[in-house]
Design goal:
With 978 residues, this protein is α+β, with helices and mostly antiparallel strands. Helix content is 18%, strand content 38%. The chain is globular, with a radius of gyration of 31 Å.
């Protein structure tokens, strides 16, 4: 018999249609696989205690989709890396040409004036930074910088003169030395420098000059070494005070020009302005084949990282973006509103034209306004996908002088053919002097046009500056995240908090970020081969804070993943860092079980490997700047649960999916039965009971609670189901009988059922059809942001039944607007009905700040949920098509600490709700979760007086007590759950 999930688990399962929709918007064939991984990882990572299930589940799904979608890319990168690692043997003529060029460079260095030659040798042979050279020579550091610049200038002039001003003639043969090619017999720059360093200063001057010449190349011709690390020192974290950082800052840039209109092309590593091929990308809108103007095109090597390796350029009035000086190799091409789904191979010589059709998406139009409702000119529009953990929010457009904007082809799809189902994206705005707007979620069918109103926030500041390496050189293509919150893995309804600013440095290392809230804000910066940098900056409203950020060399971890038998494990996932962090690194092992992660932090780094069928492994690795650390990982299966899935007749059930969870241990794992119905679940937690959900094609779902993995083989009997033959169809109309398009309709039977047939968006005629579904008891939910939600009563549907809902007419609901006098920081307003059930919550951020979502006509109370201010709950009535107004005087109350202890409970609820009454009147509602502790605590602000506080699990009261709050403060209150 099928067990109905508990109320706590049902909260997560209710979001299955959303998870399913999101999975199909990210993936095609592998969407079901991503959904399965999502449910398993949810509990393992702490899903039993989430406050916002939809947002939390979406972030897990993004990670799962990312894993599946990028495995092929990782394999291609590994193969490409192997090709790059295989050197091409030069011809005898090329060797002679290189040797002659090297000899001339050594002679030129030797002929420098003594003081300049000394500076060059200390800098490029000894590897000393200018400040250390200055200390040893007793000179100001600026003098050392000037000597180095003068020395490089003299070298350029002398070598140019020897080749009639043709720098290409002497620079090209020297490029192999900068890339680690032969410098002399059995000598390369890296080993030579190491040997010279080991042997001290006793080597002949000629050897010193030879080694120094190889490194001075970088300064001579602007050659950037591909995928190699310099000899920089360990990066220093940003612990200096803001005043010190500002003192050494670069001059601020024009924010709009730098971030939204930058047109200069960056050179890929390993190239110069006159070397390599050109790639011209012709971007068109797939729906009408017109040129896509102002779209940012991204070009990156197949072995690269979208965040730190991509070249970015906006298309011109013809829809073209031109990239010069690209070396031979394979590259990926994407845009700021689509996945990097195009691959192009370059030979390093001729120009390639690439046609790129933007995926068919939605058109977003609207206006950006400030808090007074006035249009904001030249605001930046940020587009974020409902998907992909490695695709950050991107600036896609600039509003006009009247605040109006239009963004075409918003989709983040991967091709010109629309994916099944609606497009789901977020859009926000930011502008100089204003805090960024909350994000609005747009869910609509491809080719639809959606009108939006984006309202900016309170006065805010700007952060600008420059990113340099340990030698003071500009770091292009660095990525910075400034502010708190997420820029990827975004989920939820409209009103998602503003994303932190995510910006990239230009070829001079400069950046600018707008709309940064006042106060101390965190900053994270990354660049290719550089260790991540973390710090803070003090931001003041209507002021530009200037920074100079120095990135040190990163570390590399290389190794092999093996299974329990010692065999190499292909397609194992290797990870460093948190998926929500900018400094997150992930790889998939090659067919030989090998992996490599670069640009890692320096110090103790935790690296983890996992394979759903072979187990997990973790290690702590000591890394150093610019060096490679070896880390081989062997997966472990741990405690095994073995068993068999059979039907009622005892026949084996193949390909049954088993979702195994242990909420208390925050563990989850998945298994699939083989042809004999047998399964093995590895790495089970010890001394903890498991819950197992069995499902699959042709069988009814079964839940098996309280499974002891150490008790021996487990037999799970399931019932064969009849085919999915039930259909639910109908239409949705508004209160006046007009068909409603793009309304969410889903069917629910209390279980998670694979497949997209349970969810649909209405078409232009308002019609929908759900199914085929399995026979059983079903109800239908209809949701629209403009109307209160609608739910049918459950109905039993037999095989081949068709349930016609003709039509579903949504009610014209009412809203409530709050007029507030007081500080709105960290304040949420909660609407409760006559049974004290929470029906809506909102805040100062959202599509319409301080206005609730549509409510069914009726009587409600408006409460304040905050730890800093208090207010009496205010009754109001929501009228059909009307907006009620409630005025609140926010004031500081008495801080009362309330702790909920669940030590005595073997099984915890997902979360509990605390309701606070004064007399018979509900004054506030808040929730407690048990993700980190069994004794969570919160502080409420209450007016002096007597209260009754009660803890609920759903509608069931668990414990209650009465308290008296004194004006001078009261002792903490503890509620023990039993």
């Amino acid at each position: 018999m099928t067990t109905v999930p508990s109320h706590s688990l049902q909260r997560l399962l209710d979001e299955e249609p959303f998870v399913r929709l999101l999975a199909h918007s990210l993936l095609a064939e592998e969407a079901d696989e991503a959904v399965q991984q999502t449910w398993l990882r949810a509990v393992r990572d702490g899903g039993a205690s989430v406050v916002e299930p939809r947002s939390w589940l979406a972030r897990i799904l993004f990670h799962a989709a990312h894993s599946l979608r990028r495995e092929e890319h990782r394999r291609e990168r590994h193969e490409r890396a192997v090709q790059l690692a295989t050197s091409v043997v030069p011809s005898p003529a090329e060797l002679l040409e290189r040797e002659e060029s090297r000899r001339m460079l050594v002679v030129a260095v030797n002929e420098l004036p003594a003081h300049l030659r000394t500076a060059v040798l200390m800098r490029y042979f000894d590897g000393l930074p200018p400040r250390h050279i200055a200390g040893q020579l007793g000179l100001p550091v600026t003098t050392v910088w000037n000597q180095l610049r003068r020395a490089l200038q003299l070298l350029r002039e002398r070598l140019d003169a020897q080749h009639d001003g043709g720098r290409r003639a002497w620079l090209l043969p020297l490029i192999p030395f900068a890339n680690g090619g032969p410098v002399g017999p059995s000598m390369t720059p890296g080993p030579v420098a190491a040997r010279l360093s080991d042997q001290g200063k006793t080597l002949p001057m000629q050897a010193k000059l030879t080694a120094a010449a190889a490194f001075v190349l970088v300064g001579l011709g602007g050659v950037t070494i591909w995928a190699t690390s310099g000899s920089g020192t360990t990066p220093e974290l940003a612990n200096e005070p803001a005043s010190k950082k500002t003192a050494v800052a670069a001059a601020p840039m024009d924010p709009v020009r730098s971030e939204a209109g930058l047109q200069r092309t960056l050179a890929l590593p390993g190239t110069t302005a006159s070397v390599g091929a050109a790639l011209v990308v012709h971007v068109r809108h797939a729906d009408d084949a017109t040129a896509a103007v102002g779209v940012t095109v991204l070009v990156m090597p197949v072995v690269g990282d979208r965040r730190v390796d991509a070249l970015r350029r906006r298309t011109d009035e013809r829809g073209e973006a031109r990239f010069e000086a690209l070396p031979a190799g394979s590259f990926r091409v994407g845009t700021d509103r689509s996945d990097d789904g195009k691959k192009v191979d370059l030979d390093g010589k001729k120009t390639i034209d690439l046609d790129y059709d933007l995926p068919i998406g939605v058109t977003l139009t609207g206006i950006v306004v400030d808090r007074t409702g006035a249009p904001v000119p030249r605001a930046l529009l940020d587009l974020a996908p409902l998907g992909s953990v490695d695709t950050d929010a991107e600036t896609v457009a600039v509003a006009g002088e009247d605040g109006r904007f239009m963004v075409r082809s918003a989709s983040f799809g991967a091709g010109a053919v629309p994916t099944p189902g609606p497009v789901a994206v977020f859009l926000g705005a930011r502008a100089n002097g204003h805090a960024s707007s909350p994000l609005q979620l747009v869910t609509a069918q491809p080719r639809a046009t959606v009108e939006l109103r984006l309202q900016l926030g309170t006065p805010a500041g700007t952060v600008s500056g420059v990113v340099v390496d340990a030698q003071g050189g500009a770091v292009p293509r660095a990525i910075l995240r400034i502010g708190s919150g997420l820029t990827t893995g975004l989920a939820g309804a409209s009103g998602v908090p503003p994303v932190p600013a995510t910006v990239h440095t230009d070829e001079e290392g400069k950046f600018v970020a707008l709309g940064i809230p006042p106060g101390t804000q965190p900053i994270v910066a990354r660049a290719a081969t550089k260790a991540p940098w973390r710090g803070t900056c003090a931001v003041t409203a209507n002021t530009t804070t200037s920074l100079r950020i120095e990135l040190g060399d990163g570390a590399t971890i290389r190794g092999t993943v093996r299974d329990t038998e010692g065999s190499t494990m292909a397609r194992a996932e290797v990870e460093v860092g948190n998926v929500e962090d900018l400094a997150h690194y992930r790889g998939v092992t090659s067919k030989d079980g090998e992996f490599q992660l670069t640009g890692l932090p320096v110090g103790d780094v935790k690296i983890a490997a996992q394979h759903h069928g072979a187990g997990r492994a973790e290690r702590l690795v000591k890394t150093t700047a610019g060096n490679v650390a070896r880390c081989d990982l062997q997966l472990s299966l741990g405690l095994l649960l073995r068993g068999r899935v059979v039907d009622d007749a005892g026949a084996p059930v193949a390909k049954a999916m088993l979702d195994c969870v242990a909420v208390a241990a925050k563990w989850a794992q998945r298994a699939v039965s083989d042809a004999d119905g047998r399964f093995v679940v590895p790495n089970c937690p010890a001394n903890v009971k498991l819950s197992i959900m069995v499902r699959g094609n042709g069988i009814q779902q079964r839940n098996a609670p309280d499974v002891d993995p150490s008790a021996g083989p487990l037999e799970l009997r399931v019932t064969r189901s009849t085919g999915a033959t039930v259909k639910i169809r109908g239409s949705v109309v508004d209160h006046a009988g007009k068909p409603l398009a793009d309304v969410s309709v889903r069917a629910s039977n209390g279980h998670v059922v694979p497949g997209p047939t349970r969810f649909e968006m209405t078409g232009a005629d308002g019609r929908f059809e759900l199914g085929p579904l399995v026979p059983g008891t079903w109800s239908v939910w209809v949701r629209s942001p403009l109307y209160p939600p609608f739910q049918t009563a459950p109905r039993d549907l037999a095989a081949n039944a068709v349930w016609d809902l003709e039509p579903v007419q949504l009610v014209a609901g009412g809203t409530v607007r709050v007029r507030v006098d007081g500080d709105l920081a960290a304040v949420r307003f909660v609407v409760v009905d006559g049974a004290d059930n929470v029906v809506s919550s909102f805040s100062d951020s959202g599509p319409t700040p301080l206005v609730s979502s549509p409510l069914l006509p009726g009587a409600y109370r408006l409460c304040v949920s905050s730890e800093t201010v208090t207010a009496d709950a205010v009754p109001f009535t929501a009228g059909s098509g009307k907006e009620a107004a409630v005025s609140l005087q926010l004031q500081t109350g008495v801080r009362q600490r309330i702790e909920v202890a669940a030590d005595a409970l073997a099984a915890l609820p997902d979360r509990v709700t605390l309701r606070v009454h004064r007399g018979t009147t509900l004054v506030t509602v808040t929730t407690y979760t048990f993700r980190q502790t069994r004794r969570p605590a919160k502080e409420l602000c209450l007016l002096p007086g007597d209260y009754r506080i009660a803890v609920f699990d759903g509608d069931r009261e668990l414990v209650a007590t009465k308290i008296s709050v004194a004006s001078s403060g009261s002792a903490p209150v503890q509620l023990e759950l039993r």
